[in-house]
């Protein structure tokens, strides 16, 4: 793009919308104008940003005639309703919902993996599921080196994945517990603090996999352009505010030592290796919170597989940041830096 883009944030009052603003400021993302969009109940309020007060406007089908790039994080139904209208108006939508991820005409992009797919967009680019992004950033460089045949992943997912209200409920349950009050259970309908439970998405009655697990399977194959990769996932909610952790087990096509894997990961974009066996310091949610990189540790050979053909690792990534807002803004940066709009 020759000039700084006119941008809009759809869903600016939500957790990811607020993170968009923080990252735009931190990364000095260029823009010539900025439009704040939300539901009718927020219209007319003010949003502070970089020392100015921006009016929040109601998101409608007519919001995008003067917008070049729109960052959407308002839920799938809103994206399906307004995303095509924005694209029709000549705007490029970077959508954080699941609405278009598996559409064959919509690129599904993790910039560290498949930024080249951005140029094939038809007005909408999909941001993958947070757990998929966090897993794919460190798995991809290993896949490039020796080929990954199979991924077995168990996730430990933070409240932030269910939105700001879920984060607030976890904090409220901590207060309720200390006070000896009945626990607030409006979001998940259960005790969250001191507990963990199967991810709250719907379970497919035929396969037994929930929607979150199916996203990790299908999205990884699309992002890697490889339908042969076998993925098995188990997704769990844990009482953590904003960073997801994942236990990842890999099976390779060719042998790879743990030392070789560690060096590949140290050189990989978007990865920080934290793997100190002597002091037992490995990725934790607090390490990854508010950070851009995916943290990787517990790197070791899989004792159950032939020597060199299997690897174990434990990873942590900020769900709101790299798992959502940062990934979308990296896509927008690629658009600004020269991918055709």
What does it look like?
- By secondary structure, the protein is of the alpha/beta class.
- It folds into two domains: 6-128 and 324-336, NAD(P)-binding Rossmann-like Domain (Rossmann fold, 3-Layer(aba) Sandwich), CATH 3.40.50.720; 132-319, 2-Layer Sandwich (Dihydrodipicolinate Reductase, domain 2).
- 31% of the residues lie in helices and 24% in strands.
- It has helices spanning 15-26, 76-88, 111-114, 130-146, 164-179, 211-224, 258-267, 285-288, 321-336, and strands at 6-10, 33-38, 46-49, 52-58, 69-72, 92-95, 124-126, 148-157, 197-198, 230-237, 243-252, 271-273, 294-301, 310-318.
- The strands form two sheets. It has a seven-stranded mixed β-sheet with strand order 3-4-2-1-5-6-7, with helices on both faces. The protein has a seven-stranded mixed β-sheet with strand order 9-10-8-11-14-13-12.
- Helix 1 (15-26) crosses helix 9 (321-336) and helix 4 (130-146) packs parallel to helix 6 (211-224).
- The protein starts with 5 loop residues before the first strand and ends in a 5-residue tail after the last helix.
- The mean pLDDT is 96.
């Amino acid at each position: 793009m020759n000039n700084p883009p006119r941008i809009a944030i759809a869903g600016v009052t939500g957790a990811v919308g607020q993170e968009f603003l923080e990252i735009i400021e931190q990364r000095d993302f260029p823009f010539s104008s900025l439009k704040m969009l939300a539901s009718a109940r927020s219209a007319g309020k003010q949003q502070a940003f970089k020392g100015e007060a921006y009016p929040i406007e109601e998101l409608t089908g007519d919001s995008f005639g003067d917008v070049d790039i729109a960052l959407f994080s308002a839920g799938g139904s809103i994206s399906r309703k307004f995303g095509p209208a924005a694209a029709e108006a000549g705007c490029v939508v970077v959508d954080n919902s699941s609405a278009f991820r598996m559409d064959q005409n919509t690129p599904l992009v993790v910039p560290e993996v498949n930024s080249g797919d951005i140029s094939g967009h038809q007005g909408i680019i999909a941001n993958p599921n947070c757990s998929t992004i966090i897993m794919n950033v460190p798995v991809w460089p290993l896949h490039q080196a020796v080929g990954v045949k199979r991924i077995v992943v168990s996730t430990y997912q933070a409240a932030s994945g269910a939105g700001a209200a879920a984060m607030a409920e976890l904090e409220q349950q901590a207060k309720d517990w200390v006070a000896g009050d009945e626990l607030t259970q409006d979001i998940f309908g259960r005790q969250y603090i001191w507990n963990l439970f199967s991810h709250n998405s719907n379970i497919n009655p035929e396969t037994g996999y929930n929607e979150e697990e199916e996203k990790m399977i299908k999205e990884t194959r699309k992002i890697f352009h490889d339908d042969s990769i076998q993925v098995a996932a188990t997704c769990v909610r844990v009482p953590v505010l904003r960073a997801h952790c994942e236990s990842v087990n890999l099976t390779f096509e060719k042998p790879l030592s743990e030392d070789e894997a560690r060096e590949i990961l140290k050189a990989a974009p978007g990865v920080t290796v934290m793997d100190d066996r002597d002091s037992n310091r490995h990725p934790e949610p607090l390490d990854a919170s508010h950070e851009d990189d995916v943290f990787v540790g517990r790197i070791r050979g899989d004792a159950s597989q032939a020597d060199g053909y299997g690897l174990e690792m434990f990873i942590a990534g900020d769900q709101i940041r790299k798992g959502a807002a940062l990934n979308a803004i990296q896509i927008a940066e690629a658009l600004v830096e020269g991918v055709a709009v």
